[in-house]
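lol ok so funny story. i was supposed to be doing the assay writeup but got distracted and ended up predicting the structure for this chain instead. priorities right. anyway since i did it might as well share w the group, maybe its usefull for someone
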Amino acid sequence: MYSKKKSDAVSGYLFLLPALLAFLLFIGAPMVITIVLSFFDYNMLQGSEWINFDNYIEFFKNPTSWQIIWNTFKLTLILVALHIVIALLLAFAIYKEKRGPVKYVYRTAVYLPSILTTASVAIAWNYMFNENRGVINWLLQQVGILGPDQNVRWLISTETAMWAIVIFSAWKFIGQHFLYYFVGLQNIPDTYYEAAKIDGANSLQMFWKVTLPLITPTIFFILMVSLTGTMQAFDEPFFVTSGGPGYYTTNAALYIYRKAFQAYDMGYASAVAAILFIIVFLLTLLQLWSQKKWVVYDYE
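and the output, tada:
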């Protein structure tokens, strides 16, 4: 009996070994290297020197750093809110669609952008955001929001550049979260809706009192995924605005890239990456703690 348990334990560890090795190689080791490098003045072209916490001190003393932190949180807050709300509304509307073929078309149309490569569609969106020839300004002129000779400088104005990233990112990535919601809605037992109908609940009341509470596990998952993802977003600011104008749309991930692979200051970039990791880790712990207060797991 003992030997069988031991054999099962060994088999289990052997099955876990490939995933554990992959984690250590591609996640664990880079994390340790990043933390070590953050205490060095390390330039790939000039060698390295131990400087203790100087990289961290320099980051918090630099006025640009606070702009970077604000950009990161601003982009995260806006995108997380859009992903949670718009994806849920789209999923619920398509879930309620009774016509099977139409439902499949809608599902495909919403999900399709999420499987396209970011670089290719970003090029198309750059043309759409073009001040003089972009289709977005043309559409705004056609509906009367802009005058015939008015144009929004989407990519080069400090007032609109961040919103250009938001619009592009929402279009590109909401489909993925829509799919999570759609699956979550299908997993809600019909008995809850039948009981609500018997009690006289209308459609709006069933959404607020039945659907929304029972979809909270999916909302929590999407909150976790979208928050950690947007805090580390790189493709959107890099391809859409290149972080400009100035530093107005430069977030932490793009700032790390610039310092590491353009300025070759790997030590400073590692310190910024370590700070970003700590922030994301603390936010994740906060979400895990708060889920007990609002996530419902007690349905069948």
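Residues 84 and 257 are 28 Å apart (CA to CA). Residues 2-37 form the longest helix (36 residues).
back to the writeup now i swear
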